[in-house]
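A quick word before the example. In earlier lectures we treated sequence and structure as two separate objects. From today on, think of them as two lines of the same record. Here is Amidase written that way.
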Amino acid sequence: MTSAEIDHYSTAREMRDAVRSKQISARELLELHLGRIDATNGTINAIVSLDPERAREAAARADEQLARGEEVGPLHGLPFAFKDTHAVGGWRSTSGSVLRADHIPERDELVVERVRKAGAVTVGKTNVPEWAAGSHTFNPIFGTTVNPYDPTRSAGGSSGGSAAALASGMVPLADGSDMGGSLRNPASFCNVVGLRPSFARVPQWPTGNAWETTSVQGPMARNVDDLALLLSVQAGPDGRSPVGQETPGSAFEQVQRIGLAGLKVAVSVDLDGAFEVDHQVRDVVEAQARALADAGAQVIQRAPSLTEAEDTFRTLRAWHFQASYGAMLAEHPDSFKASLADNIRLGADLTGADVARAYHQRTELSLRMREFFDEIDVLVMPVSQVPPFSADQEYPAEINGQAQQTYLDWMRSAYFITVTGCPALSIPAGFTREGWPVGIQLVTAPNTERRLLEIGRAVEEMTGASARRPSLA
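And the structure line, produced from the sequence above:
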């Protein structure tokens, strides 16, 4: 592949290989993406704290390394924008909060350190909701990130800037984090791929609570192969983290090609009525279930029982938010959006018995899912209960006429899976009649990311939805 054949929708692997073989320089690749950012970011508002000159200096150093014949990393020369909740040393990192509007960390956190060490060229940050709370990306510093497929709609969140930047061709890879769906929901809304890994698959350092198990970090990309490339950099043990899985990141770099014939697939649109699902989302999930059966998979309608997931997730989320932000809210009560402030205050009323109950329930949920996957290879269900909603709303007010009372109600299809501890992959699956993307969620047993990526690649090829690009200039 020559430099003339590389464009902003080439795969990350194609770009990486072209730089390594000197068919295109890191500087040329950067300028290609800076041009795309200049053409689209004014509409989409995905990338914030953009610094082209610092990026050009980094790209020049990358080219000099190659010229000297030095060994380079697996992401060498690829432009990269980090989620604005992730600390990048010397780079403005706001978390979408006015309380951190001018915050500049002194050092990289681990997930950033690994990506930069792998050779990525930092161009900026990606937009987030305030403190990454909620699955619609807006904040008082940078405003709202909108959907590349329809700028009147939400890009999801909290990794909404990451997903929108990928879908728009501004970057070839992106990172994110996920508590209640923050890697999966924006991937679904923006027709890209997002993985919520198992706990500690991607270790975190430094962090206020390394033992907190609901929030994880992970990769996003435009296809499964590229996502696996980024996961191979992010994953693997680190001595500074008190938790972490021993499997090296390199184990995920190559995704084996498998067929769908004989695969044991459980499909559930709503986990036996556990939540409401928009009719168009239901249609996409059911259409993919039929396609899986046509491809030879053994498809059955079956759902695990996750009745305790609602109380478990909401209790642990409120507890975590109170521990992280309670003191700040008390000191700056007018510096938090109302929905987040309410969620933090809920945590103040929790008792030790409440938290203990939530962790006991989480253990039961995990055991139940392990038993479920003794007979099933993969669970297929919606990522989001709704297609992309209006960017003017904080969250969808209703689903099929059923009112949604809080900014969490419509995210149950994602956060019910969070508290099981299972890895979950959002794959582009189809579109509504308006042309809005809809993803499906693939879930496998805990600590089975390699198998999940193999299945995800096969499903991605079956749906073909990821090939559809937004109509941007």
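Notice the following. The mean pLDDT is 96. We will return to this example when we discuss secondary structure assignment.
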